[in-house]
Specification:
- This protein is mostly helical.
- It has helices at about 5-25, 30-50.
- Keywords: Membrane, Transmembrane, Transmembrane helix.
- This is Integral membrane protein.
- It comes from Streptantibioticus parmotrematis.
């Protein structure tokens, strides 16, 4: 795993934890989940490109 892939994966996981905590405390926010899904897709793309 390259450095960029590790950073993107860590950012996606950290954001998942934060969005989940926010949802539990404050309530659901579709925009936060959409943002997390976008970040997760970008992390997956970075992993695919990095494995070439």
């Amino acid at each position: 795993m390259t450095g960029a892939t590790r950073v993107m994966t860590a950012a996606a996981l950290a954001t998942l934890v934060l969005v989940t905590a926010y949802t539990v405390v404050v309530g659901d926010s579709g925009w936060l989940w959409l943002g997390w899904a976008t970040l997760a897709v970008l992390a997956g793309g970075t992993a695919l490109v990095g494995s070439r």
